[in-house]
Amino acid sequence: MSQTDLAALTPGLAGTTATDRPALMRKVALRLLPLLVVGYIVNYLDRVNVSFAALTMNHDLGLTASAYGLGAGMFFIAYLLGEVPSNLIMQRVGARRWIARIMISWGIVSGLTATISGETSFYVLRFLLGIAEAGFFPGIILYLTWWFPAAYRARIIGMFMAAAPFAVVIGAPISGFVLGLDGLAGLRGWQWLFLLEAVPSVLLGFFMLVYLIDRPEQARWLDPAERDWLADRLAQERAEREKHVQWGVVEALLHPRMLILTVAYIGAAMTNYGLSLWTPQIVKAFGGLSNVEVGFISALPYLCATVGMILWNLHSDRTQERTWHVAGAALLTAVGFAGCTLLHAPVLVVASLCVAAIGSFSLVSCFWTLPAAFLSGTAAAAGFAVINAVGSGVGGFAGPYIIGVLRDRTGSFQLALLPIAIAPVVTAVIVVAMGRQATTRQ
Length: 442
What we know:
Elements: H1 3-7, H2 21-61, H3 65-93, H4 95-112, H5 119-133, H6 136-145, H7 153-161, H8 163-179, H9 189-196, H10 199-211, H11 224-244, H12 249-254, H13 256-284, H14 291-319, H15 323-342, H16 346-366, H17 369-372, H18 377-410, H19 413-416, H20 418-441
């Protein structure tokens, strides 16, 4: 993260004179974000490295596109089951121990994926990986709300989530090279990919256990005045939200606004994971490309998304507008995927993937400002987990699986991507309707 990005964390906040607010927020960001970003880079690599492994693994194991899509999506079914319990446990035991546990366990399971021998073992290991990773992403989103006041959250979440596309920028070329290790020590290249990319997760998990701090009140690296101001500011915001509505877990989970946001997030997840888990094979279908070349070309959309989502979320914070930033990102995603379905020249398809990636990653990052505006405490822990669990579980399963089935039946990625172009339009309509309803009630 550059000093320019950190300098953006400086909007004025009323209510303090002794503490240098911009310096405080830069200090917090410098302390927490680099480690969390690295953690999410490793997390996203372990989640989507199967998309690069598939370039040779599918042939070696005899997996059809439908079987691969089903196995890739099994991860998200497990995710759906584990998210809410994971976040509620983190709320009780703290982020330090729980996030470390998640990282160590998913690293072990990811490494074991190198042992798969067919469809059944592929499905089982992907399901177990989903169980192991469940709670990491919504847990970090919840953790950031424990440290950053509302005025900073879109850009902070955007900077954190920029790790996802940046992980592919780094991982795509590396994955292409690792696949070239085929035959070393009697292992296939895709097996080396799972093994080598699992090690950083375990090491980072142990580091998180030592380095991470649960709450501002416990941060010895902050001055007493800084700790007091930040803790008071966050407590005031929480009290202000609860003054209007104070929900328990059950009330939060059954509230219509939560249910609507969950449905909206399904469309966001369909596009995001459909893109992430199929891009290398879409590029490979151009023909005549080595795995290394596929890796570099596949990285281009994510490079664009890394920059685009940071700027998108920064603008949302500066204008303090959420609804149209979320809906606009959804529509941009739809335009990108529509381009993939209508255009055939490889250069134009890659350009369309770039547009889709900018929109998709901006959508899933800016989206989290919506539930954060009205949830707090245990309700926030459960609410973030439910939205991510159901959204990622249903959307993350449906997106890759639908693409795989339609690819097998039509032989074309153009037609296979059509449903993925429609999903974000539904998300945009829901978010705008919700925003208008909230404005009318005010």
